Amino acid sequence: EAQVTQNPRYLITVTGKKLTVTCSQNMNHEYMSWYRQDPGLGLRQIYYSMNVEVTDKGDVPEGYKVSRKEKRNFPLILESPSPNQTSLYFCASRSLFSVPRTAEQYFGPGTRLTVT
Amino acid sequence: QQQVKQSPQSLIVQKGGISIINCAYENTAFDYFPWYQQFPGKGPALLIAIRPDVSEKKEGRFTISFNKSAKQFSLHIMDSQPGDSATYFCAASPNSGGSNYKLTFGKGTLLTVNP
């Protein structure tokens, strides 16, 4: 089954304790992205990657890091989490070279993070 | 700067009625306009999408109407069902040129369909 998986699904942590949220896709997609969803704000992009070793900032990158060492994985790293990073996080992926061409982005199930 | 404005924030309709959600965008570089449906505890899932070379796209009970000159697009759900109760997001993105294929989302509409 084609899917995007995220782990963990739920996480409660304390300020300053480094954490990593993993994202993996099995569709051989080149493009991957992280979004955060906050009430009344919709989804906002944090970081994206066009391919292995190619990453760039989205709209709200402060306090986050990413890496893309393998095509299927795109972890989100919070090196010193703060309460304002309490949010619902989604990983997404899409193909850049599919035939027929499609622009659909596939989303993971989400990770609910609480930082106290 | 909010580049995609979505209204209403919430919508209540009766079973069998028509649900209409509207979006407006500003960036003329956008050329892909999807609608996502999100159920509680789930990630957004693509519902239907349109490109600016057509003015309407219909898939089953769901129709997108697109007005390029007004930079507006809307989702119509015909014969709304209680199972359609979810949050709906409009979005827009560029789809060419090697740019970031970031989806710029509206703030969402919580649709409730009463039985």
Brief summary of the model shown:
With 116 residues, chain A is mainly β.
The best one-word shape of chain A is globular
Radius of gyration of chain A: 14 Å
Distance between the termini of chain A: 36 Å
The average pLDDT value of chain A, as a whole number, equals 93
Tell me roughly what share of residues is in helical segments of chain A: under 10%
Strand content of chain A: over 45%
Report the total helices of chain A.
0
- Count, helices of chain B: 0
Mean pLDDT of chain B, to the nearest integer, reads 92
Describe the protein.
The complex is a heterodimer of chains A (116) and B (115). Chain A has 116 residues and is mainly β. Chain A is built from no helices and eleven strands. In chain A, the strands form two sheets. In chain A, strands 2, 4, 5, 6, 9, 10 and 11 form a seven-stranded mixed beta sheet that branches. In chain A, strands 1-3-8-7 form a four-stranded antiparallel beta sheet, with no helix packed on it. In chain A, strand 5 (42-51) and strand 6 (54-57) form a beta hairpin. The model of chain A has no long low-confidence stretch (mean pLDDT 93). In chain B, a hairpin with a 6-residue loop joins strand 4 (33-38) and strand 5 (45-50). In chain B, strands 2, 4, 5, 9, 10 and 11 form a six-stranded mixed beta sheet that branches. Chain B has a five-stranded antiparallel beta sheet with strand order 1-3-8-7-6, with no helix packed on it. The radius of gyration of chain B is 14 Å and the shape is globular. In chain B, 0% of the residues lie in helices and 51% in strands. The A-B interface holds A 4, 31, 33, 35, 40-45, 48, 50, 56, 58-59, 90, 92, 94, 96, 103-110 and B 6, 32, 34, 36, 41-46, 49, 89, 93, 95, 98, 100-103, 105-108.
